[in-house]
Design goal:
The chain is 36% helix and 8% strand. Helix 1 packs antiparallel against helix 3, helix 3 crosses helix 5 and helix 13 packs antiparallel against helix 21.
């Protein structure tokens, strides 16, 4: 740990030495140079701060891989996938740079000097470009083939052609009201201890939990109307439409303080303070907590950076998933994750399943790849305390609790069941066609179960009619992007509905004799077994009356004692947090939420439905016959088709008594896939060509002609004609081919950190480290393994052999000449190393020299160094 402290301190000092003096040097460093040069120095040192914190985080994770705290387990589940991680890093660099520029502007103002055009739109565009943000702020490129109206993109982009970023993965969450930051830019409410809101400081969040929310396990009762599956489905659907990853770093950007132990608010550390009497005897006086990752851009997804710095938009949070109800939980929200999830050797368009374990012949989810952090409980009987791998699914939180894992497993099986049946009906379909059709059906079933069976139970019939209502067709003006308040507050109502004990039942829905109930904390990450906004502002947004007095609060909250505790903590009604206020409201009739959350959830669900071009009820998505069949299906039918259960409730969300409320699976209706049977058009002479290597085709129609559209797998690029049309003479072009993409040659966005070598592989790439370094948790950065290099061990071994040999020879000589039997004493040889002084060097354009092995060799021959993070022993 001492070496690690030296490392972090040295890196932080290097950044401080190079970064903060520019504030005081003023005109000489920043404003006296050409725009790009002025910004370059700021951007380079911002990268230094961010990367230093990330490096320190990965080094700590390496040290603690065997024994993980609950906070670390949760942190692993919120790790962004590579695309989200790159965006988060770029956004953090950009924000750090703008914060530095704001300090410069403040200094200029204090010195009574007028800022120049350095704060112009052009200059800020340079900041966006050099930080890496600009590439993610531009609108996505949309395909222009007949498939554009047939299948949704895995990223959710281009659903709305006029607003192609609406609802897409890795864009900012929507804002229905302006954010309330204490500095007007990025500091959340409660960041500054002395800051007053309506004349009062905000209460510590831990005190709100302790005094208002926390109750004993004994007073928690079961819902007498709805089953636990209602809670599990809410969590599962939440993971389908929203994922706000934590900051890519778990250490502060300025100084590298460990967010696991620091009790100061240092971005991204935002610790939860504990009362003095609640603090542990040994350890920090707070609970670790991290800020959400920032989003590139202005808060309007895809919009360019406008205005000058004084009008710069406030910090926004990124959604790592698509906003649409599209079964991202099954298929992922990026090409890279989709590539890991699919079974590419299957002609039936199947998803990957576990290679070893089966459930009476039925599939389990596969394990995450070896490079992923081992963050879950080990297999029974595994030696030691080593963690085991988590399950791999479309969302990284699939292993969080058993109910969530069960739903992920259920839909994996349903996809493969549908795909196999569709291939049997349509033998001429390619693997991609089968996969896309099964994905389309699974997505439709997610929408049906959610809007038809789940949401009305949450909102109640009256609020459902008011805020959602019947489907009236696609609305191109409806923005389906998930809102910040829905994702982080309103839809988190379910967290207060979870029972503290997880019961494990047998096939007759009775307590399993060999599997006793688990406490909730025992069920986390075991595959083997806050937004703070003004409550009143959101009531006003929903057309509800503001609560101005204690009497008003008592009307909205039935419990007088709870209302009194809330007002006693917050002092002023306008200080109440939206999540707490909405959670405490009286339920609407037949609902599981109060009026505020019913409004916010209802508005979001309506937007998700009406703003989705691929919503299952939209006339172009399915045929009339297919829609009629889909309406027959239900979650109960999915359970019957993919488990060993033979009797289920007709409504899976309804509480039922066995046996009277359970029906045999044979009587549970379901859809017939005959509506998906497809015949060759009469007189067609083209047939289907063979699939291309590392790619496939999907067919559709354009102007009455059959068309094939080719795509390549992730890591390959298409060479040749993308689209083939059937003519009376046959196909108008030869099939294209898929060529391997050399990701290592991408100098604009290198796939590996500068500390690693990039080696291109077929369809992918590998980041390589030189001994004794190894890859960190991000799979792209080299960190110190804290062990001696292999060459050092060889040298030590040879030295030991040499010393032993010399000692033996000396002993033999002494014994021969003196005849003495005394023992020789050998000196102890100690080896050591000195940690070199660390400096964050200026990163220059590396080009392909950083990427290619061959060019690395050339660089060494020419005497050029490569960037390496120094090693501490």
């Amino acid at each position: 740990m001492r070496a690690l402290a030296v490392l972090a301190a040295a890196l932080a000092m290097a950044c401080t030495d190079a970064f903060f003096p520019f504030i005081s040097r003023g005109k000489e460093l920043l404003w006296g140079k050409p725009a790009e040069s002025r910004i370059a120095s700021i951007l380079e040192e911002s990268k230094c701060l961010v990367d230093t914190a990330m490096y320190a985080t990965m080094q700590r994770n390496l040290k603690k891989r065997e024994i993980l705290s609950p906070a670390q387990l949760l942190s692993f589940s919120k790790l962004p996938e590579p695309t989200s991680g790159a965006i988060a890093r770029a956004a953090e660099i950009m924000e750090t740079s703008i914060q530095a520029m704001k300090r410069k502007v403040s200094l200029e103002t204090q010195q009574s000097r007028h800022p120049t055009d350095a704060l112009s739109e052009d200059l800020l565009s340079v900041v966006a470009n050099m930080s890496g943000c600009l590439a993610y702020m531009l609108p996505p490129k949309c395909p222009n083939t007949c498939l554009a109206n047939k299948y949704r993109l895995i990223t959710g982009a281009c659903n709305n052609r006029d607003h192609p970023s609406w609802g897409a993965a890795n864009t900012a969450l929507a804002r229905w009201l302006p954010p309330v930051y204490e500095d007007g830019f990025s500091q959340p409410r409660g960041w500054n201890p002395g800051f007053l809101h309506h004349g009062f400081p905000l209460p510590p969040v831990r005190e709100v939990t302790r005094q208002v929310i926390q109750v004993s396990n004994e007073v928690v009762t079961d819902d007498d109307h709805y089953s636990d599956l209602l809670i599990a489905w809410g969590q599962y659907i939440d993971h389908d439409i929203a994922f706000t990853p934590q900051s890519t770093s778990k250490a502060a950007f300025a100084g590298g303080a460990d967010c696991q132990v620091t009790c100061e608010n240092q971005n991204p550390c935002f610790p939860i303070q504990l009362r003095e009497e609640a603090r542990p005897a040994a350890g920090p006086a707070c609970l670790p907590f991290y800020r959400s990752a920032a989003a590139c851009g202005t808060g309007e997804p895809g919009a360019p950076f406008l205005g000058n710095l004084s009008e710069a938009p406030p910090r926004q949070q990124v959604n790592g998933l698509t906003s649409f109800l599209d079964a991202s939980t099954v298929y992922g929200g990026s090409p890279g994750l989709e590539r890991q999830l699919r079974n590419w050797t299957s002609a039936e368009g199947l998803l990957r399943v576990h290679a070893r374990h089966r459930d009476s012949g039925r599939a389990y989810l596969p394990f995450a790849p070896p490079r992923a952090p081992a963050a879950c409980a080990p297999e029974p009987g595994a030696p030691g305390a080593a963690r085991g791998p988590c399950f791999l699914a479309g969302d990284g939180r699939a292993s969080e609790v058993p109910a969530l894992t069960a739903l992920h497993t259920l839909w994996l099986r349903e996809h493969n069941r549908l795909a196999a049946a569709l291939k049997a009906l349509n033998a001429h379909w390619s693997a991609d066609t089968v996969y896309q059709e099964a994905r389309k059906v699974v997505g439709a079933l997610h929408q049906i179960v959610t809007l038809r069976d789940y949401v009305p139970k949450i909102l109640g019939p009256e609020a459902f009619r008011q805020y959602v209502g019947p489907y009236e067709g696609y609305d191109p003006t409806a923005n389906p992007t998930v809102s910040n308040v829905f994702s982080t507050a309103a839809f988190r109502f379910g967290h207060a509905t979870i029972h503290p004990r997880v019961r494990r039942l047998d096939a007759d829905f009775q307590e399993h004799p060999d599997l006793p109930a688990l406490w909730l904390h025992e069920a986390f990450f075991s595959p083997w077994t806050l937004l703070r906004g003004g409550y009143n502002a959101w009531r006003e947004f929903c057309g509800l009356p503001r609560l101005e007095t204690a009497a008003d609060l008592r009307v909205a909250i039935a419990s007088r004692s709870v209302a009194a505790k809330i007002l006693g903590l917050y002092k002023h009604p306008d200080n109440i947090d939206v999540w707490l206020g909405g959670l405490a409201e009286n339920f609407l009739p037949g609902a599981r939420t109060g009026p505020l959350f019913a409004c916010l959830i209802g508005k979001q669900m309506k937007a998700l439905r009406d703003g989705d071009w691929f919503w299952w009820e939209n006339s172009h998505v399915f045929t009339d016959a297919q829609r009629r069949e889909l309406e027959k299906h239900s979650l109960s039918r999915v359970i019957c088709d993919n488990t060993g259960l033979t009797r289920v409730p007709v409504d899976a969300f309804q509480v039922g008594k066995l046996p009277e409320d359970f029906q045999p699976c044979d009587s549970i209706p379901g859809m017939s896939l005959e509506a998906w049977r497809e015949a060759f058009p009469p007189g067609d002479k083209c047939g289907f060509p063979e699939s291309v290597e590392n790619g496939d085709f999907v067919h559709c129609e354009e102007s009455g002609r059959r068309v094939l559209v080719y795509t390549c797998r992730h890591g390959y690029e298409l060479q040749g004609q993308e689209q083939l049309t059937c003519t009376p003479e046959g196909w108008d072009f030869q099939p294209p081919r898929c060529k391997d993409v050399n990701e290592c040659a991408n100098s604009a966005q290198p796939p590996c950190h500068a500390s690693a070598r990039c080696r291109n592989t077929k369809g992918s790439f590998r980041c390589l480290c030189e001994d004794p370094y190894e890859l960190g948790d991000d799979g792209r950065t080299c960190i110190d393994s804290r062990s001696l290099p292999r060459a050092s061990w060889v040298s030590i071994s040879l030295a030991a052999l040499l010393i032993g040999g010399l000692a033996g020879l000396t002993w033999t000589v002494i014994c021969r000449w003196t005849g003495a039997g005394t023992k020789a004493t050998l000196p102890i040889v100690e080896t050591g190393s000195v940690t070199p002084q660390l400096r964050c060097r200026k990163r220059r354009a590396m080009g392909t020299a950083q990427a290619q092995d061959s060019e690395q060799d050339s660089a060494r021959k020419e005497g050029r160094g490569t960037h390496r993070l120094p090693r501490a022993l």
